[in-house]
Amino acid sequence: MKTGDVVQLAITGISHQGYGIGRHDNIVVFVPGAMLGETVQAEVIEYKKKMATAELLEVIEPSKQRIEARCPQSSQCGGCELQHCDYAYQLEAKQKIVQDAMMRLGRIDVPVEPVIGMQEPWRYRNKGIFHVDYSGNTVRLGFYEQGSHQFVPAAACQLFSEKINHLVQQLEQMIQDSGRACYVHKVMIRESRYNGELMVVFVTREAAWRLPELAKQLIQYPDVVSIYHNINTDLKIMLGRSFRLLEGKETIEDTIGKFHFQISPQSFFQVNNEQAQVLYEKALEFAQLTGREQVADVYCGIGTISLYLAKQANHVTGIESVSQAVQDARENAANNGVENCTFVAAKAEDWLPKWVKKGNKIDVAVIDPPRKGCEPPALDALIASGAERIVYVSCNPSTLARDARYLCQCGYEVKKIQPVDLFCQSWHVEVVCLLEKKGDARAAEN
Fold it and tell me: Looking at the annotation, which residues are catalytic?
């Protein structure tokens, strides 16, 4: 097999990225856009070490669950890789992705529960980061095609509310009218699903002296209550570290369940309010709290999960490396009348081992790390703490499986695995995994 070959494939599997998997002459071929059970024709675009990636040319025998995508650009922008699949298929595919990761990478043979989906899996995103394109005669906001810098206009994206889509159109015109405002590299928009407030962050590579004037104009737009400037000199990351308030309020307010949160530009806040509530309530259920437990919330962000846990725990200690997020977490606890939480600004892998070594007790740990998973020193500290239960919340089944396998080698066993669909139309999935200390590990301690 070589690049440029056209092959016919029976799709018999799904990759962790949602790609269809077929075989040709014992070579595994990944085909983006192909669905399980289909027969397709595809052109090989990359080949190495008995694995290939191929571009879908024709669906010869389509799946009964293949549908027409709502957005004609869904296959380009990379944000809706599964939009051509009906929603039932999406949920089944994500369940299989999680199950395969746990079996293949974790060597964990525990049934994965059906994915908890949404009744209306559209227009759920409360946050977007849009690239600004100046290549034509008009300014456009949009995204880059997956794996390239080919610009794709936002064009009334089906994942955002009509309010955000309309603001995107207005921003295109405002940036255009401001003259050579091509200092703006990206624009981040946050929308509160609680009260409709909008936050706008202009991202530039250097100081932009025209931005204050543009901000004064934008603050007059309905529901825009907060405007920031962020300087990002490293194009490899989405946002820089420096945020300067140009107009309006420092935060916007949003809710998950009954809890209210103040959100700053750099706050980590789930993009899907409705499903975040499902996720956090499932984590609380798995924690099995009775009101007596000392709980550690590792990678706690702005305290969203901590507040859920606190209502049924003796005390919750949240650990987060972003100092602004810790400040937000403390304010969120105070604003919600939660007094049994303590938040620490530190790297979990540095602080947690020292804290445990001092004899501090952890009955239950909840960990919600970034996509790369937990740092080994943090896992070792949780193991050393003797925590009875670890509730692992993950946005990456592969690193969850890796870390769960390590915990299982150190005296824990996986009891439940529950995926939740926070990112409808894409292959991403959140997972809540319950690990409990094995009986023999408990006996050894006693």
Answer: 395
